[in-house]
Every structure is written in C-alpha cells, then in structure tokens.
Amino acid sequence: MSTDMAFGKFLANFINTIKQESVEWQKQNQAELLRLKGEKEIAEKKINEEIRRMEARFQGDLERIKKDEEIKTKSFVEFLESINESKQQFLDRYPKMPKPIALMICHHATELLKEAWDNPDIYERQKKESKYIQFMVTIGEDLAEASEAKMLPEKTIKLIDRV
C-alpha cells in the first residue's frame, strides 16, 4: 500500500508541477497570447466580411443569370412562334401542298433552332445559327415566290434534302 501511496503522491506532484509550469508559461507569454488572440479575431472578421461579399456577388450573379435565362427563353418562344406562323403561311400560300410537308418543314426549322440554341460550343453554335438563318431565308424566298402554279416550296425542300 505504501508504494501505491508513494506513486499517488508522485503523480499528484507531477500534475501540480505541470499545472504550475503551464501557468508560468502562460504568464510569460501572456502578451504574445493576447496578440495572437487579437490577430485571430481580426482574421475571423476579415473572413466573415469576405464571405458576405462573396455571397452578395454570387446572389447578384444568380439574379443576372436568371434574368438572362428569362430573356433567352422569351426569345426562344418567339422563334418557335414565328416558325409556327411560317407553317400557316405555307398552308395559305401553297394550298395544294399536303399539310404533313408543311409540318415537316417547320419541324426541321425547329430542330435547327434547337441545335443552335442548345450548343455550348460557340463556334458550333454560330455554324448552326448560320444554317438556321439560311433555312429561314429560303423559307422566306419560297413564301415570297408562292403562286397558284407552284405546288411545293421547292427551294426549302431541296435545302432539307441536302441535310
């Protein structure tokens, strides 16, 4: 039992020594600890301010992206509506043309529009846009040249055949 008591006393003295050295070390380094604590508080404030700025910037970016997408969607819908108008113009100006041909022409125009619109590669998108524009110009030419004698919009159909 005396060895257990001696060990307990040794352990208690050891712990007290560590505590005293820790207190002494803290006293000796109190100025440095206070300086570090102050720097930490300043750094935390800077980080929080930067986070608030980033959140505000990201929120602004998100709002701009949403607005841009709304505008793009509205434009896309306008394109689709104009293609649909072309379908009706074909049916009106080419009364002998079967309706499925007018539908197919407009379907082709819609697909060209989608290919251009959804393409993430700017070079490819510009190529697809050019193809779409060429197709729509051809539709316009055929509509302008429509007559009772013509049964089909020949230029438009030839352009579809080349694809």
What does this structure look like?
The chain is mainly α. It is built from 5 helices and no strands. It has helices at residues 2-28, 30-93, 99-117, 122-144, 154-162. α2 packs antiparallel against α3. The termini are far apart. The mean pLDDT is 89.
Compact summary:
This protein is an all-alpha fold.
Secondary structure tally, helices: 5
Measured as a percent range, the helix fraction is over 70%
Which descriptor suits the 3D outline?
A: rod-shaped
Distance between the termini: 101 Å
The poorly predicted ranges are none
Order of helices and strands: HHHHH
Q: How would you characterize the largest beta sheet?
A: none
Which percent range describes the beta-strand content?
A: under 5%
Radius of gyration: 39 Å
Structural class: mainly alpha
The count of β-strands is 0
Count of discrete structural domains:
1
Mean pLDDT over all positions: 89
Structural key phrases:
single chain; 163 residues; mainly alpha; 87% helix; rod-shaped
Helices, strands, pairings?
Elements: H1 2-28, H2 30-93, H3 99-117, H4 122-144, H5 154-162
Helix pairs in contact: 2-3, 3-4, 4-5
